[in-house]
Amino acid sequence: MKKKLISPEARAKSLEFIYQKLSACSIRCLFTLAKLMMLIVANTRNQLSRQSEENIDLCFPDLSKAEKKQLKTENIHHTCCNFFELAQLWHRPIDQVLALITQQEIPDGFDNPNKSKIIVAPHQGSWELLNLWLAQQGQSLSLYKPTRNPHVDQYVLKSRSRNSAELVPVDTAGLRKLLHGLKHQASCMILPDQKPRANKSCVSASFMGHATDTSLLIKNLASKSDCDIYIAAVTRDLKQGRYSLRIELLEKNKIIGSDEISAHYLNHSIEQFIRPEVSQYQWTYRRFPEQVYHDHKKRH
Hints:
Blueprint: H1 8-22, H2 27-41, H3 47-59, H4 65-84, H5 86-91, H6 94-98, E1 101-105, E2 116-120, H7 127-137, E3 140-144, H8 150-160, E4 166-169, H9 172-182, E5 187-190, E6 202-207, E7 210-215, H10 217-222, E8 227-237, E9 242-249, H11 252-255, H12 259-274, H13 290-299
Parallel strand pairs: 1-9, 2-5, 2-8, 3-4, 3-5
Antiparallel strand pairs: 6-7, 8-9
Helix pairs in contact: 1-8, 2-4, 3-4
């Protein structure tokens, strides 16, 4: 007998239904559900578990075996939180969602309405919540890569666009829109630590002690606009069921320097920024070139 396949539309409706039901849970309850999922993911062989372990072993060679295991466990817990917390972020009223951020470290001048801003947002903590918070401050744009399922894509796009957050595609038209926004006092949120596509402008620069392809998108946008550049993240307090926002000003003259200076400074800034909450960084993502992983395995 042929297996009945679930249609793309049915998958999207199922996902939205699950998140709608889970949105009735408190954020602490959702963090607990994430912990239950973590116990399964962290203790079985799967892609998330393997990748987290591989990246932690690669980037933290001085940690003991027990420390690496603990970091991996915490990291997978936060990865699972990324999935469960969307129920509240996408379905609760915006004022309730933003009220979850109970601590804020924001530098002077950030709220200047006459100055456009590039927000460098590493994959740490809840970048989905950061997106919604930025939209509350004024016009906010961020790049968006469509999902393969057009029905899921429609749901995700609608949810991420709450609070008037504006998402633009990762293409030439989208980049033009970002630049236009920067020339008209908007904030542009860019996640900087993904592998650039083969046809995109990038250079090799050190990150966590290993050479990796680094996008020049932030440099290119900053050099064409009168903007300030910040690095930001919203991180979780799992015990208290709340979040903290931290924003720091970066040095624009280094960002718009030579390609090598810009990429090295960006990666170094990300390294320093994520260290206080290093378990909340996306170590489950295959960030480095295959040769780096291959060489590391050969040496160990």
